[in-house]
Write the structure tokens for this entry.
Amino acid sequence: MRSLVRETRLTPNDFIYPLFVCEGEGIRREIASMPGCYNLSIDQLVREAQSAKAVGVRSIVLFGVPDDKDASGSQAYAEDGITQRAIRAVKREVGDVLVVADNCLCEYTDHGHCGVVDRGDVLNDPSVELLARTAVSQAQAGADIIAPSNMMDGVVAAIRTALDQAGFDQIPIMSYAVKYASGFYGPFREAAQSTPQFGDRRSYQMDPANVREALKEAALDVDQGADILMVKPALPYLDVIRAVKERFDLPLAAYQVSGEYSMIKAAALRGWIDEERIIVESLTSIKRAGADIVLTYFAVQCAALL
């Protein structure tokens, strides 16, 4: 009877599975702070996408981890960049899988910031130019959705214009519209090797105390042409997910980030919680708050449970 009257339901179609792709072959290197998650070479990434598809998870988001980094993050927009090659491989070898391309520079810069840096300051407009260039290269490689995560002002409009001019007017943008300067990103920065070499990202990511600002940021991205909005992180910001959902009619995504994943894994490894029960409960809460789409490292594990 409980199942019959359940108000919120999870399905594998709700999930986008984040994956980290690195150079090399035959590499499946576990991330120390994220047990069960790996840096994957392209051949292993293809296998992981196939395994995800087998349990019903048909959407992935890719984060590139290049060997060579520089001040402008040139590997982010290189035709033969690690992410571009990974997109092509997945589209070629794994049928019927949606590939989302994370659009940022932090994994590709030697300073670890999400844009161009000059004398310690992150420069917005020069960064936006490179991010738009990156979006076109990702679309040319075969990405189905471009997902700017950098929080630069005007980046959604710049990407929309660049995609349209390059003939990719049908490629949607899933904007990390509401991205907080959060302590929950720590394990991701190990996974993507993107820890800032100086300072932090509070000059361009949001204050965790603010909700009205979240609505303003989302409204700006809607006006600039975003097709899907996102709130990140998820569990500490369920109220924000609800507020954004009630204000805007666009599909809403939420990212259950690395710190959320690692806390659940760590407690489960200690035997303090029932891991499978907590996975389903936490993801249900995110969807109950209003998310239509959930980016989660638990995607495959939860899909198998469902």
Observations:
- The longest strand covers residues 15-22.
